[in-house]
Structure formats: structure tokens, C-alpha cells
Write a structure and sequence with these properties.
379 residues, alpha+beta, globular, binds arginine
Amino acid sequence: MQNSLFGSELRQEAEDFIRLFHREEAPGDPTARIAAVRAEIDETGTYRHTRAELDYGARVAWRNSNRCIGRLYWRSLRIRDRRHIDDADSVARESAQHLREATNGGRIRPLITVFAPDAPYRPGPRIWNEQLVRYACYGSARDAAVGDPRNAGLTDFALGLGWSGGPGTPFDLLPLVIEDGDRKPRYYELPRDAVLEVELHHPEESWYADLGLRWHAVPAIANMCLEIGGVCYPAAPFNGWYMGTEIGARNLADTDRYDLLPVIAERLGLDTSDDRSLWKDRALVEMNRAVLHSFDRAGVTVADHHTESRRFLTHLDREASRGRTVGADWSWIVPPISGSATPVFHRTYDTTQWRPAYVHHPEAQARARGEGGERTELV
Ligand code: ARG
């Protein structure tokens, strides 16, 4: 299956997008461009965005990401136009290069690499991993599992493809699993130099470093579709920088992820037999202090949730002054710790989902679980 639109739906979406582009970005009469796009759709079943349309579309898709608190800098997104690339080998090579350029020695740059779109009878490539950098998980027995349980399915799938597995640490890099338009998925080991990681230390507790915790510097979502004017780019990995709570309050703390709060609490000498000692809350704070401290110490960009919350309100004001409403999902915008201590908690948001947008397709989410989704058909 491919996700681009067809026929009249495509024509309508395309026209809406071209009008938006001309209204906001390229003042002038859109009539000629709309006519050209219609003719191209009639002839080929799809149309090709100009470079300016692609850049604008990718940026506005970020602006329209209702779950993202970090949208103040949506205009600064850099675009790597790789629409001519549709084979898995090149997608793997360019994805590694994406990580190098996004990492930028620690000064993380928001970046997207756009590979070939879905076209009639020519689906674009797909990256199965939900992010370019993910940690493997071996062993399905919950208590015996080593690694990030979120990626257990894809780890099994990669092993089934012939991947020999990593050294067996809790932080082994998963290979990329990439599928061409019409071929079977294949796996690609990430070059080591493409992946920057931060070793976690605590500002005061010296035992913390002995836990051997680490996290990768760049969160690069790899399995969401970039949808612009009815055209779907299924492989368009993009990244911003981390907010510390994503790592300290979710990835390392959730009971179905690394589940480390009991370990931290015990080392802190807290009473874990009684919820009312608030041992989880205290462990969360120390975990998050360690994440921010370690990224700072390593010279890697990371936001804290207080600063990022204030920036988000600045974003809302700035957009309002341009006459635009910002869609937002309260349950995602409010940070997972200390919500009420941040200003984003104390208000409501318009939940309208505007387009262009980054979209989760269910079959892409199934692939990230190693379930294969449906085989890409030549539709
Ligand atoms: N929450 C995801 C993670 O912890 C990353 C999502 C995107 N985050 C971002 N700061 N751009 O890996």
C-alpha cells in the first residue's frame, strides 16, 4: 500500500497547499502554479513539489505537530532534499549522514532528509525503525530482557533477517531495517561514527555513573510520513534536540521501558515499600538531574522542561500575532514530571490538526514492532 492520495482528493489537497504556500511564503497569484499541478496530476497521477514548496511544507508540518512542545524554532528546520533516492542502500548511507549533520559535534541541528515520495505504482522506501537510533532488546521474558523493551519486536525481526546481534549490553545499537519500493527489508549496521551517545553521571552521587547508563544525542523519528499537499513522503527522518524528561522521566523510567526508578531509589536509600514515601517522585527528579547534567557536561544540546515550556508559550504568542492558531495536544505538551510547575499546564489548547503534517500510519507502527505490517503492494 502507498499513502499518497489519488484523483480528485489529491487535486484538492494539492490546491489547498499551493494556496497556503502562496499566502504565507511566496506572495503572488497561485493560479498558474495550480493549473500546472493539475495538469501534472492528470498526466502522471502525482506532482512534484518545487524545492521551495518542499522546504516550506516540511517546516509547516513541524509547526502543525500538535504533540511537539519544541515548535518555536520551526522555521530553522534544515532540509536535505534526497527525493531522487529510493533504494535501501542509499537510504541507509544518507540516514547515517543525516545523523552526522544533525549531531554537529553536539550542537544539535533540527534537520530532515526527504527521500522519494509514494507515487502511483512506485511506493517510496520505508525505514522500519521508529527512530534512526534505537537500542536493541534481547529476550522476551520481561524480567530477563536486556535492552529497551520497546524495540524487542524489531530486534527479533532484524535477527531473523540475519543480523548477528550486538555485544549484548542494554544499549546495543539496532541496525536500520529498510525496505525499497519492491524488495524485501534489509538491515544495515549504523556506522559507529554517526552515533553520538552521552554517558550518564549524576552531579553529586558518584555511584550513579557505575550504573553504566547512556542515551543517544539525537532523537530522529524515522517512520512518520511527511504529508504535503496530498503527497506522502514515507521515508523522511527528522530530528530536533531532546528535552531531558523524554529520557529521564520516560525512556529510562517507564515500567515498560528501562524501569530504573526502583534501582535509583534503592541507591538513594529511600523506602520503596511505601508509595507515600514518594520514592518514585524523588528518584525521577534525580534521574532527570543526571540527564541534564550529563548532556551539559558532554556539550550536547538538551532542553529542560521549564525552559521549553516557556518557549512554547512564546511560540503561541508569536503565531497569534501572525493571525494563526496553534493546534496542540495538552496530554503530550505537558511534561511528564512537574507538570503544574510549568506554564503550559495551566491552559487549554485548540486541537485542530492542520496540514501539511507528520503522520503515523498504523502499518508503519506495526513495522516498528517488527510485525511487518502489510507487504508494500505496487498500487
Ligand atoms: N520521545 C522520543 C524519545 O525519547 C523522541 C521524540 C522526539 N523528541 C524530540 N525532542 N524531538 O526518543
